[in-house]
Specification:
heterodimer, A: ABC transporter involved in vitamin B12 uptake, BtuC, 2 strands, about 75% helix, about 0% strand, globular, B: 18 helices, transmembrane transporter activity (chain A), transmembrane (chain A), Xylose transport system permease protein XylH (chain A)
Chain lengths: ~425, ~525
Amino acid sequence: MNAIKQLFGGNTRQFGMIFALVALVVFFQFMTGGVILTPDNVINLVNGYSYILILAIGMVLVIIAGHIDLSVGSVAAFVGIVVALTMRDWGLPWYMGIVVGLVLGALIGAWQGFFVAYVGIPAFIVTLAGMLLFRGANQYFGKSLTVPVSTDFQFIGAGYLPEIGPDTGYNNLTLLVGFIVVAALIWGELRGRRKAVALGVDVKPLWVTLVKLAVLCAVVLYVTYLFATGRPGTSFPVPGIILGFLVLGYGFISARTTIGRHVYAVGGNRHAAALSGVKSKRTDFLVILNMAVLAGLAGMIFVARSNASGPSDGVGWELDAIAAVFIGGAAVTGGVGTVVGSMIGGLVMAVLNNGLYLMGVGSDMSQIIKGLVLLAAVVFDVYNKSQGKASFIGLMMKRLGGRDNPDLAVAEPLKDAIKVES
Amino acid sequence: MTKTSVLESDTHMPTANPIILQMRSITKEFPGVKALSDVSITVRASEIHSICGENGAGKSTLMKVLSGVYPYGSYDGEIVFQNEVCEFKDIRASEHAGIVIIHQELALIPELSITENIFLGNEPTRFGIINWTEARLRTLELMARVGLSEDPDTPVKEIGVGKQQLVEIAKALNKSVKLLILDEPTAALNESDSQHLLDLIRGLKGKGISCIMISHKLNEIEQVSDSITIIRDGKTIETLDVQADGVDEDRIIKGMVGRTLGARFPEHAPKIGEVFFEVKNWTVGHPQIADRLVCKNSSFTVRRGEIVGFAGLMGAGRTELARSIFGRSYGNYMSGQIIKDGKEITLRNVPEAIKHGLGYVTEDRKTLGLNLLDDIKTTTVSANLDAISKHTVVDLGKEYAVAERYRKQLRTKTPSVDEGVSKLSGGNQQKVVLAKWMFTDPDLLILDEPTRGIDVGAKYEIYGIIQALANQGKGVIVISSELPELLGISDRIYTIFEGAITGVLNKNQASQESLMKRMTAAKKSA
């Protein structure tokens, strides 16, 4: 099937969440008098939330594999302070600082991954320990002071696509990116359709595909327009570019590669995966390691944007990332979830955050509302799935296989335990 | 397989007993599927009424309607129990009326004791505080009635499946059951536990408790039932009075599949070659219990094109033997060699085993063989992703083609390979698991209980698939608890008792008696 549909995972739940996202945007557009969809605001939104979305990419893989990672905020902060310090004290250039950050993230990930995958300690505990450990380490190394970073380094967190080419009144590179995305969408969808027809698979009616494409392209073009018409000196933010590449890369890996399959297999049924030849321990190790690397990256981007690394960075980030993943369609028991879904979930939280702020709602009320929205999102999703709805939405997005009949509580582990005993 | 007359021990004629249950014109639909269409069934007092049908026929759905799992309002039709129209809104309501269902997958909590399980949801309380003394006394009473002599505080996970089944019945008796529904009660039990259970059910009949039994074991149905209702494709086909209609297994099969099955097993002319796989002095320790051995110095051989059966009682160690050979996925390997094509090989993990041409179809497909979240095509390729990927990128076109190929070859009943495996019937799920392993093109395929929980028609197809694999020159090991099945398809059968191989019989030497003798006793020193 086509690449985009694979990225989307073909999940009705996700599509329901897209509707929620659109509804939220429309709602806030109305309530804030049109401020939310101004170029400056969407740019702020991306800048302010990209690091959470990067965390969500790593987190969705961890959750699909059946684990969780509570340490990401602390790891991000820790990597941030170490990178800031090494650049200041050892005089490293900004790109070396990034290398240090990624390597440090990998080391932390290997440490936590070792305990989860090879010693067999539940990830909840290992990463809880990590959360405490690396928060303390951040404050130890930084002596609880803020450490500034160079303007070069700030580019990855606060930079924009440069202005090049003729003066069109817009940022040309942003327009270019937008057009490329539209072209890729159209090409991908049509190519996928041709392939499916060749295989003899049932394809949706052509008008459905065209409508879907038209809607998607319109949205992309509109968003491109918003980013291209920001204040002079701003355009599509660099963190957004980084995020974009990560979404493409990880989306592809999770949907189309063998390692991606292994993650879903291990999360869906660990024993069956192991008996089918999947190296389940290695898979566990890799998702935990990957999460820490992305946490390091997120930390660095945040530090770059804030111009400095501080002792209270990263507090609560893990919960935002986890919320994004679950709103985006992942299952608590593992085996279900997509990268793009988590991005949509994250955007729902981001728009909510942003919209409430623009409306002047205080952070206390804002938090209450966010909590309720998270709950509502998951309730809506569970209700939706249990109704077995086949709708227009379902027609456009194929369901990703049904879950077992939840009617009966089955004591499966009992038989397993007995087999082992005898 | 002894044919006992159904009414050898009781004298009343079921057809004269008053009717206690009538389900009339039950229709139950799910989105896109009509699971039950105008089904009716009549059960009398003190009767054992069996329901037979192929997988997917609608038996479990019918029982879920009766027991309240599908509440009143979610189906059409009427249920009349003890002359009262029933509108059960949940299981508790049906239990209150005296209908208790014991599912195939037992609803016991492994960590809790026998007492706690029997009173689960039904605890004797005074002002909210549970009276455990009273519970314990009552438990001892109930255990005596079903023939259990364990300590009532034993955690249920520590007693065998056979005894767990008895705990479930004790639980039902505690609820003053008048109509007991048993879904595949002997599916996971060995011969002696099965007989004990059937005797118990007959005893209950004598005490005025009627029983509805769903089972695939036709010999048992024939043995204990007073009436049999046959369901096919969600419709009632016929109801037979076992005594009056002179029903036997063939008659039941005819009703279930709509034709007489000429033979249970397809014709097969074995083409057996040289020994190509040998296990020598295989010794494996129990994973948790230090001094216990699960495989004791076992040795066996497999020839090309041969179907080798492993016979043994539950807990004898057949699965343990197979899994420990398959990449040491069970137990602590202590000593022994595996020799394939003349060369000794070491299989330290599952990927190595697969690489060396071994495949293993697990005993319990739902917990060990399938990821129930996946669709058919993903499952089919899941043990051999390398064959359809380039540089770790999966070729979705190839995946689809492979899945389609096996769907056609194995005649898996499904609208498309994009269907989720959880939607398939047991027999078709098993076909998908077989396809998964066939795609790895193994030289030796080990099948652990390949036809458990599968209807007669699908069993026949699976036997055909097994024979086709043998014809390709592969070696096949079949582990099964159904002796007729082993006798029907194996060329040679090894018997296992308490972790040791006690004998090997050729097809023409083997019989149920000769097998059972070796399955129930240690090898006499020769």
